[in-house]
Amino acid sequence: MRVAVIGGGPGGLYAAVLLKRLDPTREITVWERNAPDDTFGFGVVLSDETLGGIEHADPEVYRALQAEFVRWDDIDIVHRGRTLTSGGHGFAALGRRRLLAVLHRRCRDLGIELRFRTEAPPAAELARAYDLVIAADGVHSATRTAHADAFRPRLTTHRCRYIWLAADFAFDAFRFEIAETEHGVAQLHAYPFAGPSSAGHPGARPSGTADGTLGASTVIVEMREEVWRSAGLDRCDERESAEWCAKVFTDALGGRSLRSNNSSWIAFRTVVNDRWSYGNTVLLGDAAHTAHFSIGSGTKLAVEDALALAACLQEQPDTASALAAYEEERRPVVASTQRAARASLAWFEELATYLDQPPHQFAFNLLTRSRRVTHDNLRLRDAGFVAAVEKEAGTPAATPPMFTPFRLGELTLRNRVVVSPMDMYSAQDGDGTPGDFHLVHLGARALGGAGLVMTEMVCVSPEGRITPGCTGLYAPEHETAWRRVTDFVHTSAPGTAIGVQLGHSGRKGSTRLMWEGIDQPLRDGNWPVVAPSELPYRAGVNQIPNALSEAELGTVREQFVRSAESAARAGFDLLELHCAHGYLLSGFLSPLTNQRTDAYGGDLAGRLRFPLEVFDAVRAVWPAGRPMTVRISATDWAEGGTTADDAVAIARAFAEHGADALDVSTGQVVPDERPDYGRSYQTPFADRIRNTLGVPVIAVGAISSWDDVNSLVLAGRADLCALARPHLYDPHWTLHAAAEQGYAGPGAPWPLPYQAGSRTPPTGRTDAPKPRLTLR
């Protein structure tokens, strides 16, 4: 096999080493347009997991790298003159030039041809002459650009500028520092990559000599684009930029200078490709994907790509099968890393919104920003640090954050768990009346310990139903039936609150039950649907709705009012107005579904007009002491739709009109949405609203563990967490979360008839004698 490698970075070089080591008969050539010691950046961070893969695949490379590593455990977070330290994290770093030198030497020892200062021929030309072409040509990959029709790349440029610099001394920990300048917030990310006292000693804090002159550290300075321009850095050269950064962070640097290496201010670009291979050409590392530097993943991902590609070429019968297996193996790992990196990137983009948090909460928020480090995980690393965060937050001793009370209006919830609204499509006889199913369904979840249990979307009129199985609150029998449910909750699960979500289906109505075909029109018995504009949910599939006139808007508003009055009489503790997921009120908010030219359309103020009129009318009849929330879709996940900035403005408007909290969901507004799914993927939108506006929020969306809830609450990203599917899997999810954490306090009391089951059942024999002696 003849192999061509385009790009002499760590990923391309390591792929060459592995392929040659696995089969010495392979002819491998690496093209690198720069000189051997030319490199961007200074230090490289590798995880223990990646190092384990290197050790297993090529012990010689591992031994050479191990001799160079600086290892440390601590992260220092400096904000407003105070330094907080969290330990137990475990990092390893070395200079990028040293890493390249190790790989160059290994390539030469194995007989790999290295062509420096030489532009590689085009990939198409190489593909004709070689059996395999590995395009490891970086974020600006010429190969990816030349074959964009095959790889189908999507590139997203983000809102911060950053610059790679170096300090000629070793920081004694990974350091985050915040500077509040006259132009705005700047942040420093710094870590040692050379230090004489720490190499090869896990757990050590790297340091230089007594005068602090030895060692070296990577220093990255980052800020929002508008801050960068205001500071005049867009007009500064390399030297001036380094001097500005050294002045702003002079305390961190001890007055020392910063050096550059062809350093320039960069806006980070996320690279995603629909395909990673084309014929016998395959993308690797930054050419295939990028992940923000704040989680230290670029070189790590490239090295892991190389390991997987080499293994797949060894295991599969032919090149095509190997490239398919490589992508299948790596894509989910990379997607997970990119989700974490985007969460981290977004956190730093919104850094200014967190500056007024208490110091320990700020530090905890920073450490858990990517969602990969959590409350429980951090407690294992540094229990003392987490205890200090909880003490500052006023969390009672031995109480997980999720079991602290929270007040909405005059309603105090005993914990932070909400059973999210979930459509059940099980109304009796198709007339909107909740029956035994709803009593058992909602009653079981109330007994399960959540602080607040929400109904499904309860419809305000027959034509406002989504399906014939949806419940309503527009007839006397509905009120009576719902009173049966609320009475059960208040009597049998005292301390649990129950809320009603009121809504109107809009253009998404008159469809089948979910399991018969979600969003598909009824086969017969359809009723006419209404919307802000005459736009069907799916053209050619769903009905064309009637665009509501001003008189009809008044009728709908009164339907909400009557349902709210009925909900109050039925005994609900909280009312939520459904302005999300493409239903009627949501349809007014999104520019993709509201194309009106009257006062109820146009700019955001016009699109907000009718939802706010409904809110005000409902608030006027809803009892003053009972809280009222609003669920919104914070993004449509579609071009031209509601943006995160719009969501903040929408939330502000509802808060100013008296909403006690915003329930922040996303999407389901248009069928061609492209959600960025992943664990807790919707929480950044709730986080931004909470910390920009200072209003309480309910976070929702793939929050699936009690560790997630503890993390979000303690970090101040959410006040309450709504979980849907976990409560379908386990109605007693909250009580089980308490038992698993060893908590038995007032935030999660077991119902008296269930107290005998409040301990986790044994899973097998535990009385076997322990081995006392091992014979070798």
From TrEMBL:
<dbReference type="InterPro" id="IPR001155">
    <property type="entry name" value="OxRdtase_FMN_N"/>
</dbReference>
<feature type="domain" description="FAD-binding">
    <location>
        <begin position="2"/>
        <end position="338"/>
    </location>
</feature>
<dbReference type="InterPro" id="IPR002938">
    <property type="entry name" value="FAD-bd"/>
</dbReference>
<feature type="domain" description="NADH:flavin oxidoreductase/NADH oxidase N-terminal">
    <location>
        <begin position="402"/>
        <end position="738"/>
    </location>
</feature>
<dbReference type="InterPro" id="IPR036188">
    <property type="entry name" value="FAD/NAD-bd_sf"/>
</dbReference>
<dbReference type="Pfam" id="PF00724">
    <property type="entry name" value="Oxidored_FMN"/>
</dbReference>
<feature type="region of interest" description="Disordered">
    <location>
        <begin position="749"/>
        <end position="776"/>
    </location>
</feature>
<dbReference type="InterPro" id="IPR044152">
    <property type="entry name" value="YqjM-like"/>
</dbReference>
<protein>
    <submittedName>
        <fullName>Bifunctional salicylyl-CoA 5-hydroxylase/oxidoreductase</fullName>
    </submittedName>
</protein>
<dbReference type="InterPro" id="IPR013785">
    <property type="entry name" value="Aldolase_TIM"/>
</dbReference>
<dbReference type="Pfam" id="PF01494">
    <property type="entry name" value="FAD_binding_3"/>
</dbReference>
